Amino acid sequence: MTSKPLGLILAGGLARRMGGGDKGLIKIGGETILDRALSRMKPQCSRMIINANGDPSRFAFTGLPVVPDDIPDFAGPLAGILAGLDWTAKNAPEVEYVASAPGDCPFLPRDLVTRLEEARSKEGNPLACAKSGDWRHPVVGLWPVALRADLRHALIEENLHKIEIWTARHGVAIAEWPDQPVDPFFNANTPEDVERAQEIARAHPGA
Q: How many domains are there within the chain?
């Protein structure tokens, strides 16, 4: 088994509030949000994959595997996490955990995986997720590959799509970050968010 988790960027959303398209391909500070996320995640993970639906060629520039949901009808982020867990079990059986982050977060912390693993180990829970300020970010998490069958059952048999209901069943540790001067989990959901992200990138070039 390897100690480093596999990294999963979740880019399977419909971006309704952005008018459609791929939020990860928007440029912030001269780089796409996806490139920014990958540059932060890659050093922390054994390898990276992208969860996305539709034509995978739009992410060909990354050179990474693009893994679609196999739960139909855009079943939400849990379906993307399940796709990542299934891909890992098949293609990287030595990996025990998957670390996930959404593809619309341009300021992900460079210690994301370390802090998630520390929280999980300290609290003795199988799962971990991130929190900044007063907000929990259940999509930013650490997921055991061993729970993939349980997650598939929850999605298909129970029609369960709320992440925090499922994670609460198993026990989830919380890793905390400050949300000032930059919230590391700021996400670009709307055109206004993109403008704000550009301002943050200019004011905090290292963020």
A: 1
